[in-house]
Amino acid sequence: MAADAGRAAGAQVTHLELADFDLPLYNADLEARGTPDNARRLKEIFHAHPAWIICSPEYNGSYTGLLKNTLDWASSPIKGDPEWSSGTKPFVGKVVGLLSASPGALGGLRSLSHLSPLLLNLQCWLTPKQYALSKAAEAFDDKGQLISGLAQAAVQGVVEQALHGARKLHAPD
Ligand SMILES: Cc1cc2nc3c(=O)[nH]c(=O)nc-3n(C[C@H](O)[C@H](O)[C@H](O)COP(=O)(O)O)c2cc1C
């Protein structure tokens, strides 16, 4: 839905499933033996995209370990590689819209309040609009589309703000 909204607004969209990158659990001793190719690939993809939408479920009132692990790998400098010596390089100036979804009544809203400061710390810009989809198990039809027009409009609003922000921020002077 978010990817479709981005395409409808004229963006070239790359849809990532973080689990597909199959990154090991980050720790510095492991990293000292070499950065996984997929961590480098993620850095390149993040860096190449001026607007992002992050959509995640909520675990124990926060964002998931998978998302944290991905952000940890993507923000860790690659030792001995001058191109990626700055951990924040993939993140600086990205305009990020946040979406969550969960079967609960709050739709993962609490996870967004934890994720926001992490992304700000990495020098991302966050859209003023965010959206938490409650009762997510019943929210989609059998084609995977959101049933509620209000929910569709809310997702579209976040996507449009991210694109608008990125176009303004990255416009030539
Ligand atoms: C360990 C764990 C903790 C969870 N904590 C929350 C929570 O705090 N709030 C919530 O709304 N849902 C919570 N859930 C429900 C998940 O949001 C729900 O299972 C969701 O569909 C998981 O998506 P996934 O299968 O893509 O990881 C939790 C699920 C798990 C496994």
TrEMBL record:
Gene Ontology cellular component terms for the protein in this record: cytosol
According to the UniProt entry, the coiled-coil residues are none
A Pfam family it matches: FMN_red
Q: Name one GO molecular function term.
A: FMN binding
Q: Looking at the record's lineage, which domain of life comes first?
A: Bacteria
All residue ranges annotated as the NADPH-dependent FMN reductase-like domain in the record: 2-137
Q: Name the chain's protein.
A: NADPH-dependent fmn reductase
